[in-house]
Amino acid sequence: MQQFMSQLQHLLAAPGSGPVNWDLARQVAASQLSAGGDPAVSPYERNAVEEALRLADLWLESGSALPSGIRASVAWNRNEWIYKTLDVWRKLCDPVASRMVGAMGDLVPPEARAQLGPMQSMVATLGGALFGGQLGQALGSLAAEVLSAGDIGLPLGPAGTAALVPANIRDYGAGLELPEDEVRLYVALREAAHQRLFEHVPWLRGHVLNAVEMYASGIRVNREAIEEAMGRVDPTDPESMQAIALEGIFTPEDNPAQKASLARLETALALVEGWVCHVVDSAAGERLPNVVRLGEAFRRRRAAGGPAEQTFAALVGLELRPRRLREAAALWAALTEHRGIAGRDALWGHPDLLPSDDDFADPVAFAQARLDADELESFDFSAPGGPPEKAPGEPDGEDPPTATS
């Protein structure tokens, strides 16, 4: 929060352009990472990441009907992970933050708003700064834990770019007491599998992000929590701003529509992660000595969420973990057994073909059910998403970057 405090006066003098001050969020995250350490990626690590992703893609060839989705293989430090994923975080967080800023403005009595005049915009600026500062802290913590661009199941990075974070992989592997190169290869397999899905299922990126947005749209702002937090601010003591905690500001609406929205989000995340787990463990097979330990460790990690992921969930009201990961993986395994790899992956052709939440209860029954040929012909497989989504910042008309091998 030191960076936040040093910039506060400038922020109040210059209103931001949105509900979150993203410049501040990035500065706070970078400051936090600098204090905790953000090792630069060495040439050896870059080469090791490229080789791991190349080998991972090769192993996945026989276990997936979807072709490689990797157009660039890169190694990021923690700051690069934040910078490269910020566009998607903006898309996810701005709608929630706007409701918080609006609620802060509502705390000003109507009779006082006319007297404030232009100073009313200071309330929005302060809200954007508060949210940006604390979101920066959450992203900084998350950047110290994530292992790759697709580690938390969302398409956060540029399309077609497979990215690993070597420093975090090294720390995670040390905690598991497993060889670093084996952990790196397992992470590369997961990243390469994510890229195959999001690159060659054109509707999936929008489907997952829209599921998050729909759930976020039903989150309500706890005005009492905001009022309590703002009541702890002493205008004569800027340091009191550091005591503000926005956790608990957002809570899901307890109504049927929001519960249905949450179920759609959890099903989407579980289906993606379950497919990745099944395909990766099948591809690794007997090739990785510790594949069973690695698979179990990653399933537990994704199901529970790390400390930073939990902090982020408390801050914005979004839990980005697949609660039914094991059931989803079992469903994809049953589909492979009864329909084969091509039949299993054909379900990604249209969202209406995918298993529903109810199908998790009896995966064998779903896998054995057959759609009539006429029913399949009625689907317009190009309709849901149109052309594949471009990477953030990728201009129209340019050739995509070549794959790194």
Mind explaining what this structure looks like?
With 405 residues, this protein is mainly alpha-helical. Helix content is 60%, strand content 3%. It has helices spanning 2-13, 22-36, 43-60, 78-106, 110-116, 120-143, 166-176, 180-200, 204-217, 223-231, 256-284, 291-304, 307-316, 325-345, 363-368, 373-377, and strands at 72-75, 161-164, 219-221, 250-252. The longest helix is centred in the N-terminal third of the chain and has 29 residues, at 78-106. It is globular, with a radius of gyration of 23 Å.
From N to C, what is the helix and strand string?
HHHEHHHEHHHEHEHHHHHH
- End-to-end Cα distance, whole Å, is 41 Å
Radius of gyration: 23 Å
Structural class: mainly alpha
Number of separate helices = 16
Helical content stands at 55-70%
Kindly report the average pLDDT value: 79
Low-confidence parts lasting 5 or more residues at pLDDT below 50? 10-15, 372-377, 379-405
Portion of residues in beta strands equals: under 5%
Main beta sheet: strand number and arrangement? 2 strands, parallel
Draw up the topology in text.
Layout: H1 2-13, H2 22-36, H3 43-60, E1 72-75, H4 78-106, H5 110-116, H6 120-143, E2 161-164, H7 166-176, H8 180-200, H9 204-217, E3 219-221, H10 223-231, E4 250-252, H11 256-284, H12 291-304, H13 307-316, H14 325-345, H15 363-368, H16 373-377
Parallel strand pairs: 1-2
Antiparallel strand pairs: 3-4
Helix pairs in contact: 1-2, 1-6, 2-4, 2-6, 3-8, 4-6, 4-9, 6-13, 7-8, 8-11, 9-11, 11-14
